[in-house]
Design brief:
Length: 328
């Protein structure tokens, strides 16, 4: 089986955007690939360095959601980046061969700096974010990286760094390939992109009552002011959710009823909620079971770090030799 590695920042409890954009794909890849999944706490520090007090709790929350979504610790290696210090060592060595101009050219670099107001992101660590990501991947000689469209520039850079490294020191690493997964557009309850920082997200393990409370007042196509006004589903964040929760046939019917003002938005949301509860409910229950036993989550992460560490240590021995460093 080919090996894959993917990472996710510990942002806290995951929302439906995280689930349908990444996690659900990862769950489906188990069995077809040897899977490594890394909670990238050092990447979180590249922008949250001033107040890092939530990073450790957030790692536990993300791990619980991964397990609740169906990542199976028997089949997938689930671990925290900082528990395998070889990520930092490889990051350092890759930084030797990475021209600063390559990093400044990454489109997300200047964008994120401008987007995230009130944080000084003119740091060495933030500039090096993609170098750390490259290290995450090639440390395991992963051939494929399941990511969404948004990560393509980072992956392209990882391939370039790998090529340059291999050029100097011999062909140690395979060039990692993106395993592109469809990233459905999921707008949040207010119609903007679903994001934790906008406070408009629906959690993957949302409580049943909160799910109703969030969906019922959700923004819809503004054209449907009255029950008799027809709407356009493509312009409605509720319909984004139908696209991931409602079967094709029923979804076509919903779209038709919207366009013909055949039903009201509350009816439409009711149909959606009937489909969301049976998906979210079991994930919430599994999450609650894991959260009731944090020591079991810790055990999974320790076992994951142990298995990841074995691979990582073997790679680093090879890397140090290839670069001509003195063996101790
Ligand atoms: N940059 C990725 C993101 O924001 C997270 C990440 C870090 C990652 N290391 C990785 C993804 C390695 C894939 C592989 O989503
Ligand atoms: Fe959105 Fe449904 Fe209302 Fe159409 S009927 S605008 S899809 S909530």
């Amino acid at each position: 089986m080919k090996r894959i590695l993917s990472g996710m920042q510990p942002t806290g409890q995951l929302h439906l955007g995280n689930y349908f954009g990444a996690l659900k794909n990862w769950v489906g890849l188990q069995g077809s690939y040897e899977c490594f999944h890394c909670i990238v706490d050092w990447h979180a520090l590249t922008s949250a360095y001033e107040d890092s007090s939530r990073v450790s709790d957030n790692c536990m929350l993300v791990a619980a959601d991964w397990l609740a979504a169906g990542l199976d610790p028997q089949r997938s290696v689930i671990f925290v980046q900082s528990h395998v210090p070889e990520h930092a060592e490889l990051h350092l060595l890759l930084s030797m061969v990475t021209p600063v101009s390559w990093l400044e050219r990454v489109p997300t670099y200047k964008e994120k700096q401008q987007e995230i107001q009130g944080k000084d992101l003119s740091t060495y660590g933030f500039l090096g974010y993609p170098v750390l990501q490259a290290a995450d991947i090639i440390l395991y000689k992963a051939e494929c990286v399941p990511v969404g469209e948004d990560q393509v520039p980072h992956l392209e850079l990882a391939r370039e760094i790998t090529r340059r490294f291999n050029g100097f020191y011999g062909k140690i690493f395979p060039e990692p390939q993106a395993l592109l997964s469809a990233m459905p557009r999921l707008r949040g309850t207010d119609g903007r992109k679903m994001s934790k920082s906008y406070n408009n997200s629906i959690l993957m393990a949302e409580a049943a009552a909160d799910l109703d409370k969030k969906v019922r007042p959700m923004m819809t196509d503004p054209r449907r002011k009255r029950r008799t006004d027809p709407g356009e589903p493509e312009d409605c964040p509720v319909f984004d959710l139908h696209k991931v929760f409602t079967q094709d046939e029923k979804r076509s019917e919903v779209a038709h009823l919207c366009r013909t003002a055949g039903f009201g938005c509350l009816d439409c949301k009711k149909i959606l909620l009937d489909r969301m509860h049976p998906v979210i409910g079991p994930m919430r229950e599994r999450r609650e079971e894991w959260m009731a036993h944090p020591e079991r989550i810790k055990e999974v992460l320790r076992d994951g770090a142990q298995r990841a560490g074995q691979v990582a240590r073997a790679t680093m021995t090879e890397v140090r030799d290839a670069m001509g460093l003195l063996r101790p």
